[in-house]
Amino acid sequence: MEFSQALRERRTRSRLSQLDLAIRAGTTQRHISFMESGRSAPGRSMVVRLAESLELPLRERNGLLLSAGYAPVYPETDLGDPALAAIRTALDHILTGHLPYPAVVVDRHGDLVASNTAFTALFGDVDPELLAPPANVYRLALHPRGIAPRILNFAEWAVHILERLNQETLRHPDERLAGLREELASYVPRSLPSAGHLGFAVPLRLRSEGGELRLITTVTTFATAVDVTVAELKLEAFLPADDRTAAFLSGNLGPEGGSAGAGSR
After folding, report:
1. What is the CA radius of gyration of the chain?
2. What percent of the chain has pLDDT over 70?
3. pLDDT averaged over the chain?
4. 139 vs 146: CA distance, rounded Å
5. Where in the chain are all domains bearing CATH 1.10.260.40?
6. pLDDT at res. 223
7. What predicted TM-score, i.e. pTM, was given to this entire model?
8. Helices 44-53, 58-67: inter-axial angle, 10-degree rounding
9. Boundaries of CATH 3.30.450.180 in the chain?
10. Which tens digit of pLDDT belongs to each residue from 70-111?
11. Which fold has domain 82-252?
12. What per-residue confidence (pLDDT) applies to 195?
């Protein structure tokens, strides 16, 4: 994609007018118009400012630079690289600190990067093929040979996951994510979730040996990351939605053990 087309497409996707983008980037609407029509070739610093003003993910910022003929600014380092040792240590610390509750680290496609022992204990009884690297947590959740048979509110939870993937692909188009969403949608019955009050968050109602568990999730990212790999990591933590679930997890999974290790794909 040429720079002019790439800029116009990303601005439109961000629902910004040329004037809006010009104000954010500290330039003029005329200059934006000239760049989008191909009449003006921006300098490297201008492309960086435009990418920042559009609040693009680091991978897309690099892509915009490439479309303008410039080298990428943001590195993409393998998680196993010694340069990211501090990141791996931080992830292991957070995963272990979240015990006795389950937590995972995934990449931009939902592939499992690392997990703690509580996640393995709670979600490990699935088809071993689904756990073969790169295991995908979205597929683990909705595949018939994953944890889907144990999810008591499957239709409701499936809609939650599919909507999340849909929002991701709308904000940041990605062929693999779009394909994954299409695959997962084929596992979901067409029946709509039951009506009723959902409370403050959609819970995951999971059948277990201790009865029904109710879990809610939080997602954490590295907000100040300047490396593509680090910026795309997500830490998803599961928290008990009631006292009974908290007691079960504390009593059966316990605080012992630790994480499975960051970068253990």
Report:
1. 21
2. 91
3. 89
4. 7
5. 3-67
6. 83
7. 0.84
8. 140
9. 82-252
10. 999 999 999 999 999 999 999 999 999 999 999 999 999 999
11. Beta-Lactamase (3.30.450)
12. 53
Cβ 120 vs Cβ 96: under 8 Å: no
Any idea which residue has 């921006």 for tokens? 42
**CATH H-level, domain 3-67: superfamily:** lambda repressor-like DNA-binding domains (1.10.260.40)
- Residue 141 exposed, middle or buried by CB count within 10 Å (0-12, 13-18, 19+): buried
Place of tokens 């690392």: 114
CA pair distance 261, 91, nearest whole angstrom: 8
DSSP codes, 150-201: GBTTHHHHHHHHHHHHHHHHHHS--HHHHHHHHHHHTTS-SSPPPPS--TTS
Q: Which DSSP letter does residue 210 get?
A: T
b vs e for 168-177, b when ≥16 Cβ sit within 10 Å of the residue's Cβ? bbeebebeeb
For the chain, what's the residue count?
Answer: 265
Contacts of 261 (CB under 8 A, 6+ apart): 88, 92, 114
**Amino acid letter at 100?**
P
Question: What SS3 class is residue 204?
Answer: strand
Q: Are the C-beta atoms of residues 180 and 165 closer than 8 Å to each other?
A: yes
Q: What type of residue sits at position 29?
A: Q
Contacts of residue 173, defined as CB under 8 A and 6 or more positions apart, other chains included, come to none
Write out 94-131 in H/E/C secondary structure. HHHHCCCCCEEEECCCCEEEEEEHHHHHHHCCCCHHHH
List pLDDT tens digits, range 5-41: 999 999 999 999 999 999 999 999 999 999 999 999 9
Instruction: For residue 110, give both structure tokens.
Output: 């939902």
